[in-house]
Task: structure prediction
Amino acid sequence: MDAEVKSFPASTAATLPAVTIRVQHVGISESLRRHLTWAQVVLGILFLECAVWAARLSVRSRWAIAAGGLTLLFALADRPTVRRLGLTLPNALGASTALTISLATAFLMVLLAWWAGGQIPANPTFPTMRMAGLYVIWALAQEFLLQSFFFTRFEELFGSSTAVWICATIFATVHLPNMILTSFTLLGGLFFCEVFRRYRSIYPIALCHAVLGLTLSLVLPDGLLMHMRVGIGYLR
Result:
């Protein structure tokens, strides 16, 4: 067994330490490792797109379950550390920074909507409290997929800074053709991935994701937001 150690800067600030990621290569060459990583990424994207674009809801649900199972299997296949996956508890600096920025952004969105004369809440019956609670769990699942699976692989292939842009683009693309969500998720994806790159924990990112997503449903009428539907569900 041989191992490769890659060190990626956790922040551009000199005061923050570097994040060291150890990737185990079990009896395979570097070239084969890269090909396997690319195969995992391509399959993950294909399964996601099938979950978004399959013709029937029941088929989309099965693809979604398959995509979740496949990416979880791939994420755990090389026995990564919990640190690499971002499953460790966040440090106080990382959590407070991420949550402060997201709460300030949410407040600004509400303020702008009020200033523009919009109704607050824009959708009095959507989301319900139950849907809001489920959305927090859904945000955590999305961040595991985005960060623990996609980001770690593109980080290995291209480095952490490039991985931020690639993963944010993938995150936005999955939300097509809902251009409102696509635009916001591109910006949100850049923020989420950069926070992950610096502080390596998905938990505060999932809370930020939930706060910003629910704020969108608070300030944008459903005629624009379309119940946050994407893919073929948006078109129908």
Notes: The beta strands are 2-8, 19-25.
